[in-house]
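Handoff note, outgoing to incoming analyst
You'll be picking up this chain. Sequence as last confirmed:
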Amino acid sequence: MYQALDLDHAGNSRQTFCSWTDTSWRSLLLQLHEAALIVEDYYLPPIGEQHLVLVTAGDTWVESQTNGRWRGARYTPGQIGLTAPGRPTLLRWRSEVGQRTLHLYLPGSLMQRVGLELWDRDGIGSRQADALAVADPVVEQILLQLAKVAAEGSDDLYAEGAAEFLAVHLLTRYGGMPQVASPRYEDARVRKAIDIMRDNLHAPLTLRDIADEVWLSVYHFLRVFKSATGQTPRRYLTSLRVDAARRHLEQGDASVSEVAHLCGFSSPAHLSTAFARETGMSPSAYRQSRRRRA
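Most recent structure output, in case you need it:
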């Protein structure tokens, strides 16, 4: 459970989307907010998550109090605020046109694990990202893409990969950690990972499950897999699952719901979305077309 879910935004902003309830993502927490025009003394208590805020619309002058002193910044689309785990925040802002923001929360346990796995040190503490306003095109594009795929109903495997990358990016760019070198013996590990995927298409695999089996950190696994195959593990696994679904649709009479379950999709809708992306048609239309040819 994310401590951010317990934050009280009443009177300060209106939440319009929450990945916890709307997509069942657990690897990260994504929320969309519409802010009030004028807010004074908005206190946010310390929480255990790394907090990122991306402005997607509006023009607002925002101030934050640190050690009794106020600092300010103009928030326009593309500006990003960073609040480290365990940091309380006192905010105030003023806008004439309103503001929409995308809030991303990364688990503190993730930040700590990444620090330990990649640098053999604790990722929590003074090395965490904290800034009132920064411009970071990499983070901006990832957050916008997360909002897009969340609206489409993508599964948690996508969110898990994004969370791992963001944790490493924040620790290297804003926490002073050195760049991470790739491990050796990549091909054998990638082949083993693909075998694990093929043998467990029906199971709710996570990146962590697969990375543990091939003795890599999740971040390293993502890098070496993409380098070897040209695809992310999520995209590759989805393609394998769609191929399996095609065989079920061609050779059996299982319903679309049953095929989704057999092939590891979280729902018939998720199967239909992935299937249409890969084949250009729905599962039902595909089955009908194959039967007409028979």
